[in-house]
Amino acid sequence: MSFETDIIVAGTGLAAYAAAIAAAERTPRLSVTLVGRPGPIPPSGSLRLLAPSEDAAREWCLAALTELSQPGAFEPALASLMVDESHVAADFLAASGVALPPRSRLRLGGDYIPLCRSILDAGPMAEVKARLRARALAAGVDIHEGLRLVTIGADDGPPGSAICTDMHDETVRLRARAVVLAERGCAPLFVPDAQQDVAAGLGLGLLRQTRAVLGNAAFIQMVWRTVDDEPFDLGLAAGSPSFEVAGPGGVFTRLPRPLVALASERATHKAHAWSRADNAIDVHLLDCMTPAGVVNIRHERQPLRIVPAVVSATGGARISVDGATNLTGLYACGGCATGMFGADVLEGSHATAALVFGIRAGIGATRHACSALMPPPPEHRPPMPPRRLPLRLREALLQHCLPGHRPGLQALIERLRALASLPSLTPLEHCRVLSALTVAEFRSALLH
């Protein structure tokens, strides 16, 4: 099976819908196709948007982003543009039928009061996604939720020469004049359902198949969740006298006093930059992690099993202000781009960046597609039967790529390289391995 389209957008998140809608509404004569398999949306999950309306608030937000970002991986021009155009993101949601309240429900004190005044609560994410999907369909976007992009630049061709797989793992060849990557980045490789369909972690793997310039893949950000996928606020719990952690021997003990003293600081941000002192709490828990990637704790006399859940490893393609990569015809936004929101720890910044640069990437793709030639289709390949990978990627990355003392990283890299060279891998397996390899190599370079 094969088909062609002018613009293909890969992903099912905010950035993907923003890019697809912007492209379709900008130039209706171009065909726009969105592919991707939607992941689960927590029923209680709410979308918060960073949208400062006053100059002082914008300056505060930009300063906070700068402070929380990873040194050397922050693009001030992109962050400044995101903050300045945050109203564009808010207007985009409003035009999609999303009701935005006049003020935030967020309540923080002290230095974070300006942040509270800059947050818009857009309501349940499921409802926001439904309205964006309806707007995309009304604009003429062809949505294929059963397809998943697994190869771009096939046969050493341009990015638009691509391969998807359908729900039955059958290969679908496609070609497009422009490609917008908005898949989830490497983050899903670390979460418990990394081997499932909806959380593939393909962003870095797709980009690595091309010669796109990558950055920031060593910077792992995470929050803690229970094994039942319920949120767990480490900052609030760590300061409690009832909080205990089971060490390597299974004995529960309280946190060391120096770490308890850092708990209040840790509570001010939901994810983190590893340069911050309070991340010593997270590293302590990682050192107590079992081989299965679980930390056993007791909180308020209740036993809990928690896991590190990466919310956004900010690695991806380095982009221009228009979402363009260094490759002609390839654009990136959301989890596939890097540099615009520092550490992704400031409440609402991730959603704002996804919308602002998703819109810009979609418009940039239309400009390119208006004059670009259609690339040749990929060569036909017989489908490979899906198999379980001989390396469990989640466990390997948890053991070797999270911050703290992680021996054996070079051995993991060599094993991943050997695995990536196997001709028997399916395109999906190959893409996952490339994502994991990219994270491991960036971590190794950072440590050495």
TrEMBL record:
Ranges for domain FAD-dependent oxidoreductase 2 FAD-binding? 6-188
Q: Which InterPro entries match?
A: FAD-dep_OxRdtase_2_FAD-bd, FAD/NAD-bd_sf, Succ_DH/fumarate_Rdtase_cat_sf
The record's GO molecular-function terms, alphabetically, read: oxidoreductase activity
The cofactors named for this UniProt entry are: FAD
Quote the protein name from its UniProt record. Answer: FAD-dependent oxidoreductase 2 FAD-binding domain-containing protein
Coiled coil, from the record: none
Domain of life here?
Answer: Bacteria
Signal peptide from the UniProt entry: none
Q: Which key words are in the record? A: Flavoprotein, Oxidoreductase
